[in-house]
Amino acid sequence: MSPTIVLFTQDLRVHDHPALTAAVDAAGTVLPLFVVDPRIVERSARNRCGYLSEALADLRAALRARGGDLVVREGDTIGHVRALAEETGADTVFVSAGVSRFAARREESLRRTGLSVRPFPGLTVVPPGGVTPASGDHYKVFTPYWRAWAEYGRRAVLPAPDGVRLPEGVDPGAVPDGLAEAGIATAAPDRLSGGEEAARARLASWLDRGLARYAEERDHLPGAATSHLSADLRFGCLSALEVAEAAEAARAGEGAEEFVRQLAWRDFHHQVTRAFPALPARDYRPRDREWREDPDAFDAWRRGVTGVPIVDAGMRQLLREGFMHNRARMITAAFLTRTLHVHWKAGADHFHAHLVDGDVADNYGNWQWVAGTGNDTRPNRAFNPLRQARRFDPEGDYVRRHVPELRGLPGRRALTPWREPEAPDGYPPPIADPGR
Ligand SMILES: Cc1cc2nc3c(=O)[nH]c(=O)nc-3n(C[C@H](O)[C@H](O)[C@H](O)COP(=O)(O)OP(=O)(O)OC[C@H]3O[C@@H](n4cnc5c(N)ncnc54)[C@H](O)[C@@H]3O)c2cc1C
């Protein structure tokens, strides 16, 4: 029987992996393959490359422990799939179905090679298109989506396969040297480590120690009381379905409910992206927004020196951790698009260059939501950074943690340094009015 190629992409795990399990069940031998495409690496965040490199090493270890291996190639994905198929006689490729334009084109090109391509679910809780409204191909508003999402009959979570048999004589190849240091932008010194094993440990500790308090504390900036599982989900080191089911089974009341709702938001953006793959480049709902070119303001925003502490704290967290708290993402994105009137795409691209969890659907979907060109049903809602700061960082602890120049200002005085009789050393006045 000819081997089956399992092309890994954003699903770097062995647990609850429908494509891998189906290949193990169907074929005598399985070729788990990951192709490092230098064209993608070149435009990826260095932080994501670092995470990816660790995740590949971990996936390889998990497959080796089951008697198989991860075949790693570098170059053009389609060329390598075809070459491996010719070398081994494989005629089938299993893949977890992605939603980006890039993923759709990859699947199309694979089909054109004459190989039989089978897409499987695996990247979301509910597959994109799994629920659709009475009219239209996708939900444009979250609440009705959420209702339908909650009713969807989910597939069962799959265990990791016991054994994976690689055909004999295949060179497994090496994870390219230097992948961890490749990509654009600077590496965050405090990035989380990558891979399924680390991700599963984070999940276990989250279910045990964080989930129950999630509903009350998720917006509290200094508490950082969210799961920090976003990069693990982005790379598929965790299955979103398994995470949702584990959270529900933990019986953590409102905390679990609220957390699972966020996973539905993730699914929501995925089904939007599948229907509107131009999301990273074009307004989802074009509105007459006036955008301004302001390179100096944009640069201050990027570096976290706008003089508005809550904005600067978020932007510096991004540079330091390759991560930013959700509430800070909203505040910083709103400041850029609504206060400075700089185009959402500039901000979203910057986020994408730094976030370890940077994902086309989630990043660009959320940016458009904040900018008012996306799925928000109240696109003109007010968003005052100062009010947000007083509400979600009432004692200024988040600000002081990330903006060392303000550490000398106690309590909420750190939120408004411009009101001090003497400006703190080295901290600029606000570049725009943050409101009252
Ligand atoms: C401007 C902006 C850009 C964003 N860019 C990204 C991105 O590139 N990648 C990304 O994963 N998330 C993005 N988010 C959503 C959210 O900020 C992060 O998922 C969250 O902060 C990650 O932290 P966590 O894992 O501790 O989240 P938790 O609060 O623990 O949530 C659990 C999981 O739910 C999902 N989730 C939570 N909120 C959202 C949301 N609003 N949209 C989609 N999924 C969500 C994530 O997978 C997250 O890991 C963005 C939000 C904004 C406002």
Briefly say what this structure is.
By secondary structure, the protein is mainly α. The protein is built from 18 helices and five strands. The protein is globular and about 80 Å long.
Oligomer: single chain
Q: Structural class, from secondary structure content?
A: mainly alpha
- Tell me the Rg in angstroms: 23 Å
Please estimate the helix content. 40-55%
Count of separate DSSP helical elements: 18
User: Using DSSP, what is the number of strands?
Assistant: 5
The CATH homologous superfamily of the largest domain corresponds to DNA Cyclobutane Dipyrimidine Photolyase, subunit A, domain 3
Order of helices and strands: EHEHHEHEHEHHHHHHHHHHHHH
Mean pLDDT, as a whole number?
96
Describe this structure in words.
This protein has 436 residues and is mainly alpha-helical. It is 45% helix and 6% strand. It folds into 3 domains: 4-122, 3-Layer(aba) Sandwich (Rossmann fold), CATH 3.40.50; 124-154 and 197-275, Serine Threonine Protein Phosphatase 5, Tetratricopeptide repeat (Alpha Horseshoe); 295-419, DNA Cyclobutane Dipyrimidine Photolyase, subunit A, domain 3 (Orthogonal Bundle), CATH 1.10.579. It is built from 18 helices and 5 strands. α6 (142-151) packs across α11 (253-275), α13 crosses α14 (326-339) and α14 (326-339) crosses α16. The longest helix is centred in the middle third of the chain and has 23 residues, at 253-275. The protein is globular and about 80 Å long. The N and C termini lie far apart (71 Å). The structure holds flavin-adenine dinucleotide.
